């Protein structure tokens, strides 16, 4: 598994994903009335090729009932999983809160617990992604501890030529593990 850290405010390659992002954005707006897709993780996945039929695990994907209630916004909903689902990826969303009403398979799991990804088969995931996860206000354990816990599990479930894409905003990647 290859580790791919990215920074939230890195520049975008508009030529790379504009043709893909615009139609997805329109679909999401029609279905949900809005969209708050974070472009960096989307761009990193698109750089790896067409996500159609790829197994993508979205760690801490967000949910309708979560910290958004505090802010009265919808930015923490599972927009990345929704967009990837629209692109026909085999998305699996994982969040602390309920994902029952989503079109993609979702699991209510605390990723800070040991062996939390036990149910996923060995070498079954092409891409694992953690967008805004390690600096989440919902994260109870320190980022370094959670990162190490997840990487040890991802080593088993992500294919050897697969990727773990994660945001490196409030943590220094070199100091995480």
Q: Any idea what the CATH architecture is?
A: 3-Layer(aba) Sandwich
Which strand-content bin applies to the residues? 15-25%
Largest sheet: 6 strands, parallel
Series of secondary-structure elements, N-terminal to C-terminal: EHHEHHEEEHEH
The CATH class assignment is Alpha Beta
Annotation field: number of helices: 6
Question: Given the C-alpha coordinates, what overall shape results?
Answer: globular
Here the CATH topology equals: Rossmann fold
Strands side by side in the biggest sheet: 1-6-5-2-3-4
Structural class: alpha/beta
Mean pLDDT: 83
As a whole number of angstroms, the C-alpha radius of gyration is 15 Å
Would you report the number of β strands? 6
The portion of residues assigned to helices is 25-40%
Whole-Å distance between the termini?
15 Å
Number of domains: 1
What are the segments in which pLDDT stays under 50 over at least 5 consecutive residues?
A: none
Describe this structure in words.
There is one protein chain. The protein is α/β, with parallel strands linked by helices and 177 residues long. It has one domain (2-176): Rossmann fold, CATH 3.40.50. Helix content is 33%, strand content 20%. A six-stranded parallel sheet has the order 1-6-5-2-3-4. β5, α5 (143-157) and β6 (158-167) form a beta-alpha-beta unit. α1 crosses α2. The chain is globular, with a radius of gyration of 15 Å. The two termini are 15 Å apart. The mean pLDDT is 83.
What's a concise summary of this model?
The chain has 6 helices and 6 strands; from the N terminus they run E-H-H-E-H-H-E-E-E-H-E-H. By secondary structure, the protein is an alpha/beta fold.
């Amino acid at each position: 598994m290859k580790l791919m850290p990215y920074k939230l405010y890195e520049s975008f390659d508009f030529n790379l994903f504009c043709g893909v992002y615009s139609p997805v954005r329109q679909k999401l707006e029609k279905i949900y009335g809005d969209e708050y897709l974070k472009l960096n993780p989307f761009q990193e996945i698109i750089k790896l090729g067409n996500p159609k039929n790829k197994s993508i695990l979205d760690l801490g994907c967000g949910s309708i009932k979560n910290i958004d209630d505090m802010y009265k916004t919808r930015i923490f909903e599972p927009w990345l999983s929704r967009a990837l689902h629209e692109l026909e990826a085999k998305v699996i969303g994982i969040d602390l809160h309920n994902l029952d009403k989503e079109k993609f398979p979702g699991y209510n799991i605390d990723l800070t617990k040991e062996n939390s990804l036990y149910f996923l088969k060995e070498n079954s995931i092409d891409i694992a992604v953690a967008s805004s996860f390690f600096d989440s206000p919902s994260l109870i354990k320190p980022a370094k501890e959670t990162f190490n816990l997840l990487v040890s599990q991802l080593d088993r479930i992500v294919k050897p030529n697969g990727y773990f894409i994660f945001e490196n905003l409030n943590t220094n990647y070199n100091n995480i593990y």
